[in-house]
Structure formats: C-alpha cells, structure tokens
Amino acid sequence: NTDARRSSSGRSARCASGTPVFIAEGEKDVGALVERGFAATCNAGGAGKWTLDYSNALAGASVVIIADKDTSGRAHAANVAVKVHGIAASVKVIELPDATKPRAGSP
User: Fold this and answer.
1) Which of 4, 69, 80, 100 is most deeply packed, by most CB within 10 A?
2) Alpha-carbon dihedral angle through residues 98, 73, 31, 37, given to the nearest 10 degrees
C-alpha cells in the first residue's frame, strides 16, 4: 500500500503505509532526503507558511519534522508539530547535528 502526500510545491512524499514522512523547511532539503530514499515533503513559501491543508494530507502518517537550526526554523517546526498533532499518527521534531562538526568519539 503506497500513499502520496503532496505539498503545495508539487513534490509528493510517496511512502508505504507506516513509513515515516519527513518534513523539511525547503525544497533543497527535501531533495536531499528523497535522493537518500526517504519520503519527504515541505510547504511552499518557507517557514511560517504551514496550513491545515498540508496537515490533512498527512492524516494517519508517522511524521518527523526536521527543524532548521535558527530561531525561525525552530519556531516553524514547533508550529508544524502543533498543526499536525491529532491528524498524523505520530509526530516527532528533530534537529540534526552539524555535518561539519566531528561527533563525540570520532577521529
């Protein structure tokens, strides 16, 4: 069973039932996720532009919101989480580590 989740930007997040849908702030990030095999989408217009229509497109999905590492990005992620809560099956907000900084314990 495959669902299509569509953002207003026209990009669909295609996922098998139960596969997480990642929400990023922009098309570039969504493209990077999709290239790596993840189901991903975003809203048009960037931070602060999430609407109920986007939330409804994710009904029943497991949603993972990736917050950008700035004040507006974190606020956007929190706003999306509130608007998706109760519509999606689950909602998580994450912030990824900087790719340029070495991880603890790595050379």
Assistant:
1) 80
2) 70
pTM (whole model) above 0.85: no
Task: Please enumerate in sequence order all residues whose Cβ is within 8 A of that of 88, keeping only pairs 6 or more positions apart, or say none.
Answer: 55, 58, 59, 60, 61, 62, 63
In three state form, how does the secondary structure of 41-75 look? ECCCCCCCCCCHHHHHHCCCCEEEEECCCCHHHHH
11: Cβ contacts below 8 Å, ≥ 6 apart = 27, 30, 34, 40, 41, 42
pLDDT digits (tens, 9 = 90+) for 92-104: 999 988 877 666 6
Q: Tell me how far apart the alpha carbons of residues 1 and 52 are, in angstroms, rounded to a whole number.
A: 24
